[in-house]
Amino acid sequence: MNVDLxxxxxxxxxxxxxxxxxxxLYPLDTCKTKYQAxxxxxxxxxxxxxxxxxxxxxxxxxxxxxxxGLGTKNLQSFISQFVYFYGYxxxxxxxxxxxxxxxxxxxxxxxIAAAAGACxxxxxxxxxxxxxxxxxxxxxxxxxxxxxxxxxxWSDAFDGLSISLLLTxxxxxxxxxxxxxxxxxxxxxxxxxxxxxxxxxxxxxxxxLLGAISKSIATCxxxxxxxxxxxxxx
Length: 234
Hints:
By secondary structure, the chain is mainly alpha-helical. The chain contains eight helices and no strands.
């Protein structure tokens, strides 16, 4: 079986980038997850905002507990991004080869992104469930990956899979928006360039900016489902 080296390279780069960003932002992600999954009792909540979660960790001298489950989250993030980037790149390349088109349209892009996202969700759901359970456990009382997953039966590890499949629209929206913004930016850049110059390319800053915009749009549109998934995984 031939290996798609270009897709493999893109997948590896995306996975490594995700690994770094996940590690840097993990304490904030833990605060967010605990805040979202906070169980309500007597009409009151334990945390009023994300700052309360951070202050609790500091007051209990459990700041390092903000990193509980980091290994599982990094594993989940790496596998998730690798599977998604590889699947997306492979399906996109296959579509272009079979269709004969030089570029991919919005509708086809959505379908390809959703298909790659569905494969990713199924492959990484147990790790995502375990990570959420670790993050929402009491500070300093997080269990290991296997112990966390075996607390119930294995079907429990796939709790929230239906919502995760629904959330495949998140990367689908993100990469569709990014691709469309990228095409517009490159077209404008090429139109303003002198004739005979080399093909236009995005600068690192512009790629970062477009990525941030597309991710923000996708997150805003799917936030209700993300919150429900965090609560159901707890």
